[in-house]
Amino acid sequence: MKLPIGPNAGDYCHPDLAKLLISRPLIDDYDLSGAEHLNTDVLVIGGGGAGAAAALSATEAGARVIMANKLRIGDSNTVMAEGGIQAAVGAEDSLQQHFDDTVKGGHNVGKKELVAQMVTDAPSAIRWLIGLGMTFDLTNGADSNGMLSRKRAGGTTVPRILSYRDFTGLEMMRVLREAVELDENITQLNRHPAIELLSDEHGRCVGAILYDWKNALWCWCTPKPWYWQPAAAEGCICRVSPLPTTTAQPQTAW
Ligand SMILES: Cc1cc2nc3c(=O)[nH]c(=O)nc-3n(C[C@H](O)[C@H](O)[C@H](O)COP(=O)(O)OP(=O)(O)OC[C@H]3O[C@@H](n4cnc5c(N)ncnc54)[C@H](O)[C@@H]3O)c2cc1C
């Protein structure tokens, strides 16, 4: 069916997805009366690899963070990643080759500026993870000098995959979880799925409504700059319905 509203209005969409995208919010305005209001500099929704890295990067930049986890930090796809991570760190490799392989592997439909950013950031992301304590497989042999072991992946012109045994994601999440838990500027709200995003009159996301599963309560969280502007916060309305990848129904989330 065709989507009737939203930025993708007019696009064709699977009816089940469309039903979620155009659905009414799960809660009404009155549900929020008296709900606890949390404020913070940065709100991170989801504690997988991306969320944990975002939270740590935000506190490195001096921000206070609230991390809302559907369950707990690390209950995520990240822990299931086995194969490894690509980064152009080999002497015979280059950022240009990594970029070319990625664009080609994506049949030329990937956004080139995003691919370029990812490829450029990859070596420093690996260094950052090693700094946090992540272990990677090293090459064997007397001459290896403990260099990072690199495997070849389909579609790559040189070996570029860095891994740790067959549980790279689990090892990555181990160090990210430790770093988040040791960081005093990150407040973790476990079992607090975001069930609606808040938007202002310009359609910008200004926060989220979280469901406190244990106490069966809603709370709402607005990060800077809105939290210190009561007038702007008052203008927030529930507008964005959850996507299927988020917790549409808290009772059935895993
Ligand atoms: C079996 C498997 C093998 C893979 N192998 C590789 C590999 O070898 N190399 C590779 O690069 N990639 C691999 N991937 C893909 C990779 O794991 C993911 O792309 C990556 O982990 C995504 O990270 P993320 O932090 O964005 O998402 P996730 O790790 O999924 O984290 C998302 C987090 O958000 C939480 N969340 C979701 N909705 C809400 C909500 N409404 N409120 C609060 N929290 C919410 C979830 O519970 C979860 O904790 C693999 C994936 C799988 C499943």
Radius of gyration: 21 Å
Mean residue pLDDT: 85
The top-level CATH class of the largest domain is Alpha Beta
Bound molecules: flavin-adenine dinucleotide
Globally, the shape reads globular
Could you give the order of the helices and strands? Answer: HEEHEEHHEHEEEEHE
CATH architecture type of the largest domain: 3-Layer(bba) Sandwich
Explain what you see.
It is an enzyme of class 1 (oxidoreductase). It catalyses: L-aspartate + O2 = iminosuccinate + H2O2. One of its GO terms (biological process) is NAD+ biosynthetic process. It holds the Pfam family FAD_binding_2. One of its GO terms (molecular function) is L-aspartate oxidase activity. The protein folds into 2 domains: 33-79 and 170-241, 3-Layer(bba) Sandwich (FAD/NAD(P)-binding domain), CATH 3.50.50; 83-166, no CATH class. The protein starts with 14 loop residues before the first helix and ends in a 14-residue tail after the last strand. It has helices at residues 15-21, 49-60, 95-105, 112-132, 168-182, 230-234; strands spanning 36-40, 42-45, 65-68, 85-86, 161-162, 186-189, 194-199, 205-212, 217-223, 237-240. It is globular. The chain is built from 6 helices and 10 strands, in the order H-E-E-H-E-E-H-H-E-H-E-E-E-E-H-E. Helix 2 (49-60) runs parallel beside helix 5 and helix 3 (95-105) packs across helix 4. With 254 residues, it is α/β, with parallel strands linked by helices. A 5-stranded mixed β-sheet has the order 1-9-8-7-10, with no helix packed on it. The chain binds flavin-adenine dinucleotide.
